[in-house]
Amino acid sequence: MQSIPMGAATAALFCVLTAGVADAHVSISSGPAAANKSQKITFTIGHGCENADTVAVRVEIPAAVSSVRALRSDFGKPSIERGAGNAISAVVWRKPDADVQDEDIGYYDLTIRARVGNVPFTQIYFKIHQTCRTATGVETTVSWAALPGEAGEPAPAVAVVPTRQAGWNKYVVGANVSIAAADLPTYFGDALIVWRGSAAYSANPITTALIASTAGVASLTDLAPNDEIWVKY
Predict the structure, then answer these.
(1) d(CA 130, CA 92)
(2) How many angstroms separate the Cα of 156 from the Cα of each of 24, 29, 64, 74?
């Protein structure tokens, strides 16, 4: 069995830990996605457009997402668009006219089942186009499609985490991937602890306090390309 690389300075902390283990109209509510695995991704429409009900939503499918299957919803049966290689390039849900509300009172979930690529520690952005209709029949479309650094309404993103099992997991950060301190909770929010050498991170404030008070253990503030880490779930 391969040993976990921790020296005597971290032993006391290890023993304690192992004793018991911008509001957008459209967001992703299903949480992080597991890399290289099929799963459900749910898009939530929290509200319409200036008191107009949402009548249609078009979700563009990114290149890192494949094997798409769209689920029925309050909007009824979905339709699809195909692109290069006959792959599904977008999913569209449109509400039947009889179900359109005169005002913005609805909260909706739209779901696909899809395979997420083997791209852990990255974020996949979905460009989404939301169409609303007023009581007088006027339709407007808002596009949530701006990528980081671009102007416009931001595209919602799903964080991709590596597959894991209960207990210790060893990972290597990708050669082109860096994880800033602000993003550590995104990828490791449900982990008991993350180790890189003698530095550790946890989203749990009690564990964070133990890290800070343990001699020889530094706080892990970011991750660089090719970093080897140990994560316990």
Answers:
(1) 10
(2) 8, 10, 15, 21
Domain residues of the chain, as ranges? 8-21+167-232, 26-161
Of 45, 3, 33, the residue nearest 162 (C-alpha): 33
Q: What is the C-alpha separation between 122 and 162, in angstroms, rounded?
A: 10
Per-residue pLDDT of the chain (233 residues; tens, 9 = 90+): 444 555 544 544 544 444 444 334 789 999 999 999 999 999 999 999 989 999 999 999 999 999 999 999 989 999 999 999 999 999 999 999 999 999 999 999 999 999 999 999 999 999 999 999 999 999 999 999 999 999 999 999 999 999 999 999 999 999 999 999 999 999 999 999 999 999 999 999 999 999 999 999 999 999 999 999 999 99
Q: Provide the CATH number for the domain formed by 26-161 in this structure.
A: 2.60.40.2230
pTM: 0.86
